[in-house]
Amino acid sequence: MSVDGWNTVLVLGGIRSGKSEFAESLVGDAPTVRYVATSADADPDDTEWAARLAAHRERRPGSWTTEETADDPRRLADVIASAGPNETLLVDDLGGWVTVLLDPAHQPADDVATIAELAAAVRASEARIVLVSPEVGLSLVPTTPLGRAFTDALGAANRAVADACDAVVLVVAGQPAWLKPAVAPRAAGVPAQAGPARQDVTAAAAPAEAPLPDVLTPTAPAAPAAPAETNGTAWAAPTMALPMVATGLVIQPGMELPMPDEYAGPQAVDRLATLDVAGAGFGTLERIVGFAAATQGTATPAPWASVRVLLLHGDHQGGAAAGTVPGESSRRARQARAGRGALARLAAENGASLQVVDTPSSAPMEQEPALAGAAVESALRYGWRLAEEAADAGVQLLVLGACGAGTEAAAAAVLAATAGAEAPAVLGRVITASGEIDDAAWMTRCAAVRDALHRTRRSPRDAKDVLAELGGGDIAVATGVLLGATARRLPVMLDGPVGVAAGMISRDLAGQARHWCVLADHGGHPAVRLAADVLGLAPLLDLRLDLGEGANALTALPLLRSVLALAAALPAHPRLGGGDPDSEEPDFAEPNPAGPGPTTVEPGGTEPDVSEPDFTEPEPAGPGPTTTEPDPSGWRAG
Fold it and tell me: For the chain, give me the number of helices (H) and strands (E)?
């Protein structure tokens, strides 16, 4: 079930509201489902009701099993109580269950006690349960005693079960509106950061919601933040295309997220051709102007004033980390938190904030899944929350980097699973701390990717399956960041294998995400080159920077900001409507040429002697006065 950390969900809805279809979608990713049918058999003469039941049966996958409880309504609580933690139950629906409960054939019966037993079973169950029930509280009070008894019993059942469930959703005209949780979801496998030390939080001992890591303030003076709205376009404006993740919405393939402005980008690039520049223009950096224009929704985009760097720290165990110094990634994370090192220095110089994010550690992918399925769900939402928190803080550009051990091999495995790449073709050489090439470590990494792909050769290749089997914690959190940033119209600058691997995964969840991403430099990584080609992200520069993920992007950031500032400030060429050049004083005046002054002959004078030498000492520039009156400056005219 793909609800945000919940085990039990009550789906309410009116007649033909789509509640059953929505409930079925919640358990669609479960390997097996036990469908608990509560209604009594249909009257043989009621063909219309029989057709409804048949339609329900046809929708169920063949792997589902069906269990009937109509003979004894009390047995529903027993079925729920006996379900194991690995089982998934879909109960459809409580309206039919109450109908059987009130049937004279089952009387005398204490419906209040039976409802209480059901709610207690739901509250205590360790299974994943989705219950469907009609919402009749919005209709008129029935005019018959039997109708009033039914609505009273069903209303009592809905209230008791809703109180026992972790989440409640009301489906109206096929649209889900989440009524509960009123509190934050339970985190599963997302670590909480409480200082430099890393803490792994499991599902059993996790707090209600993993706290977000602190945002480090750069030590260098930061540029003043731009107003919340620039050129009439709001930065990181919220979108109504998707409810916020706190509502428990499912992160699943086919999400409809916003796209950048399809007109602003081309208009901005066309405008560049009209600017008053001496040369041919901005070259390949036209792309950053078009990208900024599309993501800001204006043909004259402004430079990003508020930038945040997300540094994901999570190690991969096993052969993926071959050749890395033990503890090196933790040292880099501590260094960044302390404001030292290349990344922190570049962040300070760019006026960017820095957020170090501990992600779940990943198991050896060649031996077992890198991350549990529940931890993948929680990591995706954790990354989404990071992006939302940045958007709420007025951040205008996210820079995504990572510093974990084994990230290159994990990204290579993701590329192999999603793009059919071969590990040796996308794994870069392993360079030791002394600058030497470690071929043995490189072969170990290749073997780990090969063995992981062989182990998962029969596994599904859906986005979440790839994250669980191969990607691990850091790539899962990075994927959530991309999805959350897309939902909030917040551009992301990728830097390194983890970011592009997340981009490959996000394609299957929301294809719009890649259009909000930009790649400054490929850094010489073969995996980044291949993923960028697949995603259509041509690197803006070819500097082959390898200063560490995040640091490469910050090195290029001043150049990109300068390009955006220049493109926004320059006027159009005068010949293209940029204004009358004679209406303003020129920026630079050509000096008068040095020479002897006028060559006209004074009255009564004589022609100059042709026997004068070819070169004479030049007179002061310009005719000037010929009188001997004192000059105010103290100099005499020559």
Answer: 19, 17
